[in-house]
Design goal:
Helix 1 links the parallel strand 1 and strand 2. The strands form two sheets. The protein has a five-stranded parallel beta sheet with strand order 2-1-3-4-5, with helices on both faces. It folds into two domains: 126 residues, Rossmann fold; 80 residues, Arc Repressor Mutant, subunit A. The chain has 225 residues and is of the alpha/beta class. The N terminus is likely disordered.
């Protein structure tokens, strides 16, 4: 279930990066009707970087198929210079591998353009609240026997750390919760990434939630459909 938020006027600043003007304007109208401020609508990666530098938005919606560069690479560049910015890929491409690549880069969401606007707003709210969203049909699935082997490799302590990662805990908070030294937590996290064959804490958290390893506290990963 998406986390509900109330947006006040001009509270959330958004940049839309999409060369399909009709779609971009429809998104602008929908977001502004929900109390968000769309500070720029641009159609290229170069213009997007200028808009982000000028407006410092809270959220950037990025079309993956931009005319001048990959939207995923644009996202990487935005996060390099403005790491607090939240990114959602918005694309016509239902490509699971591309979605996973975007998440690895640091996007908090991957939405297809055929999603209805009610679900679109729900997904935006979830991302702004700290979740990651992706259409159900694009969530990676693995062979169950392989999953069993991967999960069995994790120690009891690593499973505890993984569950807290899935609940959005930082390394510092995990150390406090489990009464561990920060270096010990970092070691556990690295072991988890290696054993699960994932590339980031975010991927590990998504894996945990999708496969029921997050415990009762919920998780940061949400499917959009």
């Amino acid at each position: 279930m998406a986390v509900e938020m109330t947006f006040g006027a001009n509270e959330i600043r958004v940049v839309i990066v999409d060369d399909h003007i009709l779609f971009a304007e429809a998104v602008r109208t929908t977001l502004e009707a929900k109390g968000m401020e769309v500070v720029a609508v641009v159609g290229s990666g170069g213009a997007a970087l200028e808009a982000v530098a000028s407006h410092h938005p809270d959220l950037v919606l990025v079309d993956i198929g931009l005319p001048d560069q990959s939207g995923v690479e644009l996202g990487r560049m935005i996060l390099r210079d403005w790491p607090a910015t939240k990114l959602i890929a918005v694309t016509a491409m239902e490509d699971g591998k591309l979605a996973q690549k975007a998440i690895r880069v640091g996007f908090q969401g991957y939405l297809t353009k055929n999603v209805d606007m009610h679900q679109f707003i729900s997904s935006v709210r979830s991302v702004l609240a700290g979740s990651t969203v992706m259409p159900q049909q694009l969530v990676a699935r693995r062979d169950r026997s392989e999953l069993d082997v991967q999960i069995e490799r994790l120690t009891g302590r690593e499973l505890e750390v993984l569950a807290l990662l899935a609940r959005g805990f930082s390394s510092h908070n995990i150390a406090g919760e489990l009464h561990l030294a920060p270096n010990t937590v970092r070691t556990h996290v690295q072991n988890i990434l290696t054993k699960l064959q994932v590339h980031s804490r975010l991927e590990a958290a998504a894996f945990a939630v999708h496969h029921g390893l997050a415990g009762s506290g919920g998780g940061v990963f949400r499917t959009a459909l």
